[in-house]
Amino acid sequence: MMRYSHYIAKRKLEDVLLAPFILAGRLVGMLRPARKSYRCFFFFPFYHTGGAEKIHAQIAQACGGRDCIIYFTRRSVNETFYKEFAASGCDLVDISRYTDNKLLYFVNLVCRGIMSDRINRQAEPPLVFNGHSNFAYKLAPWLNKNIRQIDLVHSLNTFSLIRIPFLSFYSSTVLISRVQMQRHIELYRTKGVPEKVIERFHYISNASGFPARSIDGKPAAPFGVLFAGRNSPEKRFGLFLRVAEVVHEADASVQFGVIGAIDNSVDQSRYPFITFYGEMQDADRIHDLYFRHAALLLTSETEGFPLVVIEAMANGCAIIATPVGDLPDHVKTGVQGYLLSTITDEEKLVDEAARHILALARDGRLAMEMGARNIQYAQDHFSLATFNASYRQLLNRTGS
Question: pTM for the complete prediction?
Fold first, then answer.
């Protein structure tokens, strides 16, 4: 098992090998300096559809401005949140053609030199904020020590290991889930990461803007169940489809809806009882769809604390979900909805989810009671004002 010291030694060796590329990039940077001074450099992978992208846009809106710049380092598949990033007032630059090209990987290396030169030459030391960007992690060692760097971690995944050699360069690490923060602490302690580095972790809960709702206006029928998200492996959309089939066989009056991009591997014609709404960018219409449905079904294998749960709660939906991430902290069985008893046993998961949906469909009063509690819970716990204040305090701690 690789220890922290091994990661550091490997990174230092790589730094020696990369030095010529960094130097070449810095020479280019000297010839093409930044056109203006910036208070903050944000690095985000994408602006396409995704809960992480929405959070990143919210952070930019809370802490950005005309004296900030956002670099997008990976190719986005659509422009869902581009306007939200633009609303921050930051300059937007998509550098993915240079930093996300495996055939011309040396260009990525040169770009690290160009970017480090531009950041290091700022008149006042700027802040660098990294939201899950691999490029920004690899850039970190080449920035001056007086430049404060902060990174954001959504969940325990491959990035949790990728970032280990760069932990010492970050003065603060934000995690959106208490459960995921503890898992990171446990992982890093087994790797021998110094406690002084682990002590830099901060928890800031996700939040979302949502309309004021009253359960009195929520339609009682038909009973609808919603899935919101991408058809990605960790979301396990196939399990949602299996649950929908079981429920439809037992009670054809229950309706299902899907918000999000679903790839061609799913034959939508097989599911006439499911409405596929596809990609949606109109926030008002999205919230209206939540409000028209009675429950959200989340079948994920892993999560931090997903925005879809916040949005569903705010619109009076009961939550039926796997017990992943921080869900157990916010969803109490029989109160806000139902936490399933398993994450890995798919047969049991499908059976439990179907039974809970059918029970709520039969007991409309209970579904409405859960919805009313969730509206109040979202208003009490997921304020966008608190989210904004937390990030502003963290990013402006030194008065920048």
Answer: 0.84
pLDDT tens for each residue of the chain, 400 residues long: 899 999 999 999 999 999 999 999 999 988 888 789 999 999 999 999 888 999 999 999 999 999 999 999 999 999 989 999 999 999 999 999 999 988 889 999 999 999 999 999 999 999 999 999 999 999 999 999 999 999 999 988 888 999 999 999 999 999 998 989 999 999 999 999 999 999 999 999 999 889 889 999 999 889 999 999 888 888 999 999 999 999 999 999 999 999 988 877 888 989 999 999 988 888 899 999 999 999 999 999 988 888 999 999 999 999 999 999 899 999 999 999 999 999 999 999 999 999 999 999 999 999 999 999 999 999 999 989 989 999 999 998 544 3
Residue type, 271: Y
The CATH 3.40.50.2000 portion of the chain extends over 4-207+384-395, 215-380
Q: Is domain 4-207+384-395 classified as CATH 3.40.50.10420?
A: no
**The tokens 């869900």 sit on which residue?**
327
Q: How far apart are CA 164 and CA 171, in angstroms?
A: 14
